[in-house]
Amino acid sequence: xxxxxxxxxxxxxxxxxxxxxxxxxxxxxxxxxxxxxxxxxxxxxxxxxxxxxxxxxxxxxxxxxxxxxxxxxxxxxxxxxxxxxxxxxxxxxxxxxxxxxxxxxxxxxxxxxxxxxxxxxxxxxxxxxxxxxxxxxxxxxxxxxxxxxxxxxxxxxxxxxxxxx
Length: 165
Ligand code: S3P
Description:
Bound molecules: shikimate-3-phosphate
Largest sheet: 5 strands, parallel
CATH topology: Rossmann fold
CATH architecture: 3-Layer(aba) Sandwich
CATH superfamily: P-loop containing nucleotide triphosphate hydrolases
Radius of gyration: 15 Å
Order of helices and strands: EHEHHHEHEHHEH
Number of strands: 5
Shape: globular
CATH class: Alpha Beta
Mean pLDDT: 96
Strand order of the largest sheet: 2-3-1-4-5
């Protein structure tokens, strides 16, 4: 059994796109923490924030982290705030090979300029606050800036298979 590949990074860094491409490349299943929560709660993340509040959402994320050890050979994309909650960090470390997808504020702004689904997008300085946390947790960092999704997926897969061949 091989370890999971856990994708972390800011909103709009390409975790879902890279995760899907990596899933095709590797044959591993793909799961996304936000999708798991939306299914469990029967609400979109934006609705969950409005109806139940951010602390409730963070508790859902923590619950997802507690179940990660049940997954094997799986690509797991995490919401941008999930790795920043201290209570999730040890669980993430134990659950797989952690890949930080790096993106600049400018490219995030461009990618998400019409996005209305992310309640925390307008929060100032969030990337600057979170980037050092992503960096500390990561086993591998990939700059997504000037790369296609496919080459990001290939870079992750090559490094992962080198580690775990
Ligand atoms: C959040 C990121 C979102 C989602 C929620 C909160 C955050 O996920 O979990 O809106 O705190 O950065 P993505 O990183 O997939 O956009």
